[in-house]
Amino acid sequence: MSISQDTAQGSHAWSDAELTSAVQAYLQMLRLELNGESYSKAEINRQLREGPLATRTKASVEFRMQNISAALYELKMPWIAGYLPARNIGSAVKEKMITLLKTSGIDFLNAYVPTSHVEALDAKVAELRRRQIGKKPLGTIRPVTETRSITTYVRDPAVKAWVLQLANGVCEGCNCKAPFLGQDSLPYLEVHHVMPLSCHGSDTPSNAVALCPNCHRRCHYAYERDQFKLELYEKIPRLVLEVPEPIPSETDVFIDLDVS
Q1: pLDDT at 10 over 70
Q2: Which helix (H) or strand (E) holds 206?
Q3: Which CATH number applies to 157-253?
Q4: CB under 8 Å to 174, separation ≥6 — which residues?
Q5: Which of 42, 104, 138, 195 could be joined to 201 by an S-S link, Cβ 3.0–4.6 Å?
C-alpha cells in the first residue's frame, strides 16, 4: 500500500500534523519496548483515531506505523517488533518519514546504530549499559564489513622476548603468575608499551612491560588507567617516561597486536 492506495481507501492525503502525530506515538511505543515496559498497540491506535487521526481507519494507521519502521530500518535503528517494515514503501514516503523522525527526537536511538569503529562501539555499549536494556536485541545475522586504512608498527622481536624473559612468567603489574600457558607452551603474558606507539612511543625495553591480560586491559580501558600507568613507572626501574605526540593522521586506524 502506498500513499495513493491509502488515499483511495476513502481518505485524503496525510497532513504533516497527522504524520507527526503518528511518528510521536510510534516513538513513545518504541521507548517503552526498548525499556522492557508493556503497552498496547491496539489501544494507542484507538487513541490516535479518537484524536489527531480521527479521519483515518485502523488499517491505515497500522500501515503508517509500518512506514515508520521501514524508515528506521533504513537508518539502521531499532524498530517495533510488531510493526514489520513495509516492503513497498515509496522513496518519497521513506524520505518524508526519515525527515519527521529526525525532527521528532530520535537521538536516544543513536546508541543502537551498529558501527565498525572500536571507540564508537565502546561508547555506545557504555551508554546502553547505563540505560539498562530491557529488551533482548535482534542482532545481525550477517554483519556487513567496512574497509579502512590500517596502520601497524614494525616490532622488534628481541625487545618483546627480552621483556617476557625478564618477567619470568609473572605479571609486572599485579605480580600474579601468568594465567595459562600459550600455544608455545610458555607462560602467557602480553607486552604493553606504556607510551603507545601511536603516540610516538619507542619500541624499547624502557617503554615495555609484561602484563597479564587483565592488567593489559586495565592500561587501555580502566577508568583509572592513567593512575595505573604512573604506578608502573614508579614500580619498574627500567621504565623511562616519554613525551607523547599526537597521532599523525585521524584517518588511520592503529592496531596494537597485543590487544587485538
Answers
A1: no
A2: none
A3: 1.10.30
A4: 212, 214, 215
A5: 195
Q: Which of 42-51, 122-131, 140-149 has the highest mean pLDDT?
A: 42-51
| Phi, psi (rounded to 5 degrees) for 151 | -115, 125
Contacts of 59 (CB under 8 A, 6+ apart): 9
- Residue 151: strand pairing partners: 254
Q: Enter the DSSP assignment of 207.
A: G
Beta-strand pair 208-211/190-193:
antiparallel
Q: What are phi and psi of 75, to 5 degrees?
A: -85, 0
Whole-number pLDDT of residue 68 = 95
Cα–Cα distance measured from residue 152 to residue 155, given in angstroms and rounded to the nearest whole number? 9
CB atoms near residue 109 (< 10 Å): 19
What integer pLDDT is reported at residue 256 of this predicted model?
55
Checking if the pLDDT of 138 tops 90, the result is: no
* Amino acid (1-letter code) at residue 175: N
Question: What residues does CATH 1.10.30 cover in the chain?
Answer: 157-253
**Cell digits of residue 198:** 601511536
C-alpha to C-alpha distance for 240 and 200, rounded to whole angstroms: 14
Q: What local confidence, expressed as pLDDT, does residue 255 receive? A: 52
pLDDT digits (tens, 9 = 90+) for 74-107: 898 999 989 999 887 778 888 889 999 999 999 9
CA distance 126 to 31: 18
